[in-house]
């Protein structure tokens, strides 16, 4: 005898199934016909939008190279520091290439690909007339940060008040509006701002600290083994051939010490 399933329940089950499924292996991406990659939309030069709204930048170049090696086109989804991991878990994206630090806390929910493809430290951006002579001076100061970034909690633990905004552009605007004494964020991203004449009255008063590596992130689980190996081999090849240093130069950045050391390791 056939079981009768109410239409509402059948539709709900179908939606749940379609929402939870996501490609996790190179073969599944080829069958799917594309790969979906989460990238930043306001983190120039790593990930940002051109005047037409198209995702461009260093991480987009890396994503396109991965897609080329898979033999499928890449579809890019704009993410922020606070949405990139939930988007991966929900199946909205297949991987993260968005200047994401590899930390123990994130490893509990995301599989971090090694070797890493970059690194950065924590820095401050402040008006040239500022009170910061050492990192101890952040105590009792109000700092502007990006929601979900890895820089906020250590500063709070050291006595700073951190006001978090949804993205870097909002955070920088809050600094200019006088809502905080400095922005706390990645040193490479903040150094880029100082190339703009609009930031001629600002400086990075302290040496960077707490350097951490960036990793490509994929979903956890046994199915990700093949994808992990593919991505790991790809990043090794990027280091070996000097491709990562070439991409950095293309977007106006000098190769970091980390990239030069990794190139020497794998060449």
Please provide a written account of the structure.
This protein has 267 residues and is of the alpha/beta class. The protein is 38% helix and 22% strand. The protein contains eleven helices and 14 strands. The strands form four sheets. Strands 8, 9, 10, 11, 12 and 13 form a six-stranded mixed β-sheet that branches. α9 crosses α11. The longest helix is centred in the C-terminal third of the chain and has 18 residues. It is globular, with a radius of gyration of 21 Å. 37% of the residues are buried.
Distance between the termini: 66 Å
Q: Which H/E pattern describes the elements?
A: HHEEEEHEHEHEEEHEHEHEEEHHH
| Fraction of residues in H or I helices | 25-40%
Poorly predicted ranges? 1-21
Number of strands: 14
Number of helices: 11
Mean pLDDT: 89
Radius of gyration: 21 Å
Q: Output the structural class.
A: alpha/beta
Largest sheet: 6 strands, mixed
**Silhouette:** globular
What fraction of residues sit in β-strands? 15-25%
């Amino acid at each position: 005898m056939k079981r009768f399933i109410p239409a509402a329940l059948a539709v709900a089950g179908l939606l749940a199934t379609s929402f939870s499924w996501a490609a996790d292996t190179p073969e599944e991406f080829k069958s799917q016909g594309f790969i979906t990659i989460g990238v930043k939309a306001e983190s120039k030069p790593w990930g940002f939008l051109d005047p037409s709204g198209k995702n461009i930048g260093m991480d987009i170049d890396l994503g396109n190279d991965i897609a080329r090696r898979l033999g499928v086109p890449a579809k890019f989804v704009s993410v922020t520091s606070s949405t990139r991991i939930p988007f991966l878990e929900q199946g909205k994206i297949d991987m993260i290439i968005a200047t994401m630090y590899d930390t123990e806390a994130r490893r509990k929910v995301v599989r971090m690909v090694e070797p890493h493809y970059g690194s950065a430290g924590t820095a401050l951006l402040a008006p040239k007339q500022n009170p910061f002579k050492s990192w101890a001076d952040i105590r009792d100061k109000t700092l502007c940060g990006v929601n979900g970034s890895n820089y906020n909690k250590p500063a709070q633990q050291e006595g700073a008040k951190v006001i978090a905004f949804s993205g870097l552009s909002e955070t920088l605007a809050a600094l200019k509006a006088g809502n905080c004494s400095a922005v706390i964020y990645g040193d490479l991203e903040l150094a880029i701002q100082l190339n703009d004449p609009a930031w001629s009255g600002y400086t990075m008063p302290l040496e960077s600290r707490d350097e951490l590596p960036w990793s490509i992130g994929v979903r956890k689980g046994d199915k990700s083994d093949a994808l992990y190996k593919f991505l790991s081999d790809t990043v090794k090849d990027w280091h070996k051939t000097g491709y990562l240093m070439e991409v950095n130069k293309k977007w106006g950045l000098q190769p970091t010490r980390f990239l030069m050391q990794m190139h020497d390791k794998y060449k």
